[in-house]
TrEMBL record:
Residues 1-21 form the signal peptide. Keywords: Signal. This is Lipoprotein. It comes from Persephonella marina (strain DSM 14350 / EX-H1). The lineage of its organism: Bacteria, Pseudomonadati, Aquificota, Aquificia, Aquificales. It comes from the Bacteria.
Amino acid sequence: MNIKSKKAIIGSLLIFSVAFSFPFQHQKEDITVPLNVEGSGSSDVVVEGCIGDCAACHSITPYEAKSILDVKFDVKKILNIDIKRGYFEIIYENSEGKKEKINLFFGKDKACREVILLDE
């Protein structure tokens, strides 16, 4: 074996050892990494999923909101959509011309008139 082939073997081993020395967790598809947020007590609060900017991941168009709500509610026109804590607050006009408010949750499969927040 000459010196060039020894250098090539050593170089390739070095490249492979560096490449495989880092963890490959980022390649798994179903990993959820919780975000630790400093809590007010002695233990930390663990937040999974949303970190505050709901509009970055969740959106709904007025057309989509009307088509979802029109199944069970009398919706003539969507007037306003606001994003709240885990739901879309939708103000719409019914066929009688009255404004009504309904909260559609981000999963777009559940709606309610009033959301009761237990932490306030």
